[in-house]
Specification:
The complex is a heterodimer. By secondary structure, chain A is of the alpha/beta class. Chain A folds into 2 domains: 167 residues, P-loop containing nucleotide triphosphate hydrolases (Rossmann fold, 3-Layer(aba) Sandwich), CATH 3.40.50.300; 78 residues, no CATH class. In chain A, helix 3 packs parallel to helix 6. In chain B, helix 3 runs antiparallel to helix 13, helix 4 packs across helix 11 and helix 12 crosses helix 13. In chain B, a hairpin with a 2-residue loop joins strand 2 and strand 3. Chain B is mostly helical. In chain B, 74% of the residues lie in helices and 2% in strands. Chain B has 15 helices and 4 strands. Chain B has one domain. The chains are: A alpha/beta, B mainly alpha. The interface between A and B is large, with 45 and 35 residues. The structure holds adenosine-5'-triphosphate and magnesium ion.
Amino acid sequence: MALLSVREETMRFGGLFANQSISFDVQEGELLAVIGPNGAGKTTLFNVISGFFPPTSGSIHFDGEDITGKSSHDVASAGLVRTYQLVQLFKQLTVAENVEIGSHRVTRGGVFSALFRPEWMREQEKSVAQGARDLLRFVGLEHQADMMADTLPYGRQRLLEVARALAAKPRLLLLDEPAAGLNTQETDALAEVITRIHGTGTTVILIEHDMSLVMKIAQRIVVLDFGKKIAEGTPDEIKAHPDVIAAYLGGTEMADA
Amino acid sequence: MTSHVTTSIEPSGIRWQSILPIVAVLALAGLGLVSSDYIVTVLGFAFIYAIFCTGLNFFMGYTGQASFGQSAFAAIGGYGSAILCTDYGWEPLLALLATMVLSGIAAVLVGYPTLRLRGHYLAMATFALGLIVYEITIEWTALTQGYMGYSGIPPLGIAGFALDTLKHQLVALVVLSLIGVGIAARLRQSRFGRALASIAGSESAAQALGVDIARYKLIAFVIAALYASAAGSLFAHFVGFISPEIYGTTMVIQSFAMLYLGGIGTMWGPMIGAIIVSILPEALRGLKEMQDIAYTAVLIFILIFAPRGLAGLSVLFRRAHGRVQEKA
Ligand SMILES: Nc1ncnc2c1ncn2[C@@H]1O[C@H](COP(=O)(O)OP(=O)(O)OP(=O)(O)O)[C@@H](O)[C@H]1O
Ligand SMILES: [Mg+2]
């Protein structure tokens, strides 16, 4: 059974079909890329999957359960965690605390445990702090742990957002253009991090414009254009797909990859 | 400051930063105890406001929401305690706790429907709440005695032992406000506190990590109401008299000045702000007609040179300190 299954999903904004009858499956452990020109509807697709807004029609199933129209925090609680195209950090908090917040979904406790600090709560706090340190090392930010998040250079902010999402121990991780605005070195470092995340068994869906990155790490690719799915297949199949080449203006971007 | 403690990198810095304010507060209180009753009264108000603002900081600072009606909960506390103790002979402490429960329920009733909505509905609803409760304190004379106010409210006491001098009461207020700050610090440095901070940082990011933002906003709102209610009750017992103006818009404006001046979202900011804003006019009293101008000038000066509030200045120290450590 597929971990995620999107069926006939349509999202309309007034007269505009941002997504039109999109269907695809993602298997457990897969690394799928979603590509398409600007305005193709990729972010909208993520917004619908992650419960940011309900689709106009169609359904989303996650791990066999219908999550269509559920609120985004419920979807996240189920283990489907996303990042944003425009970095959304908790700017006035430290880098470490950003990641600590990420563990919300996999920890417990409210006002009373915070006040009375039972044994399990103190243990949990320790493992949250330790887990955050480990994740910062994982993405190479261990030396910035005590900096305010907004003082990080942009490329590192993107890595922090990934680390924070990982703290939620997602079963399915949605990354919306994590390489946007990164230089070549940073993109390589990011590709390495994504490959390692995938290597630990996390299922990943990646929206990305950087074709060389996509072709290098994706196992399968879904192509959107004007809100419709125009192709789906392995990187090699997609590179040779005539509709895809046409969508990418004569295929210059594709040929470069 | 608060976040600093959780990252546990400089243990010496943590101790320095949490002990210094406590020492300063105790020194100030000690100074008050050897001064005139007038100064004791001013300090008493400062610590009552410190409790009020520490609560408000949960909602406006940690969680990043706006409330213009927190005075309503202080009124519930104040009038509740006045009525229960004066007319029904309740123990002050019991009345304080009972009115806190009442305020908590009122906060849920106002907050539950409004906090689910995006935008400024909550700010508007809290504003309306403040006005409605103010009107009630004036118009429902059978309950509140209207403009006449309530007098003869007994002083705070514990188990039959009344704190009948102002100085005893000041000690109680200092202890209670420190407990209030301690509770706030504990709550902030936890999964719960981090969830609140995530909402202030970015609601969409918080939701994407599984934080039920409506629920946490409501809890923060209720906690703020509990603190406000306690502050309202304490005021009634400390002064022995209350009237509608005490819990009016002035209280809201005053508390905003304290929060921003002291450092909104920080652990000690509300207390620092409450003390400075309360004491400053008294300290400037000697300037006579220049007093208002000097007062405003000092406030503006602080906001220009410490835009994140006075408690925010400790960040400067920490940053400089951190840089030295990095080099070493
Ligand atoms: N909330 C919204 N309200 C109205 N229109 C929207 C909304 N979100 C997206 N759109 C529109 O839907 C279309 C698809 O946008 P979307 O952001 O999903 O594209 P994208 O593939 O992510 O593009 P990019 O590569 O530039 O990020 C665009 O025309 C956009 O203007
Ligand atoms: Mg997009």
